[in-house]
């Protein structure tokens, strides 16, 4: 048997110590394997922890890959100032391309260029794939069979989303150019403190 207090402490410690988001199954098959617990009970504990941290500087969030602790998004600008050399900078072209892929996926490079009105550099596509945010998910059945690009689970995790349905609603004729990804990028990389500075054209 394990008390409610001990269970909450154990779940909290497991998520905090993990290097990547933790799923319910990982908790049940890992630190909680010796106890007869079910998914609804663990989800209840996680919901309680979310509430416990609601007014704190860090928060428990559920992303595509599971649960993790992270700094509050609204504290990002202040935290970036602590590690200015570690905050990545991305060009407007890269951010626009990423936003287009996120909202219009699956999409070809040509379709991205048609919306942006300019060509998309090979370096931008390479950076997005190396970052793990974008991948090829197939090929469009048209002459030349161009690659179709879509966002990844890593993209969802990085931007604290559970699914693409959590993306902001489309409200502009070209809303993809209005998505402010740069601020979110700086916030999350400050939390991770492990990403080198990049500048892409």
What report would you give on this structure?
By secondary structure, this protein is an alpha+beta fold. It has two domains: 4-71, Arc Repressor Mutant, subunit A (Orthogonal Bundle), CATH 1.10.10; 92-192, Winged helix-like DNA-binding domain superfamily/Winged helix DNA-binding domain (Arc Repressor Mutant, subunit A). Helices cover 43% and strands 12% of the residues. It has helices at 4-17, 24-29, 39-52, 76-80, 92-104, 109-116, 122-130, 153-158, 181-192; strands spanning 58-63, 66-71, 107-108, 134-139, 147-151. The chain has a three-stranded antiparallel sheet with strand order 3-5-4. Strands 1-2 form a two-stranded antiparallel sheet. Helix 1 (4-17) crosses helix 3. The longest helix has 14 residues, at 4-17. The protein is elongated. It starts with a helix and ends in a 9-residue tail after the last helix.
Key attributes of the depicted protein:
alpha+beta; Arc Repressor Mutant, subunit A; 201 residues; disordered C terminus; 2 domains; two-stranded antiparallel sheet; 9 helices
Q: What's the SSE blueprint?
A:
Blueprint: H1 4-17, H2 24-29, H3 39-52, E1 58-63, E2 66-71, H4 76-80, H5 92-104, E3 107-108, H6 109-116, H7 122-130, E4 134-139, E5 147-151, H8 153-158, H9 181-192
Antiparallel strand pairs: 1-2, 3-5, 4-5
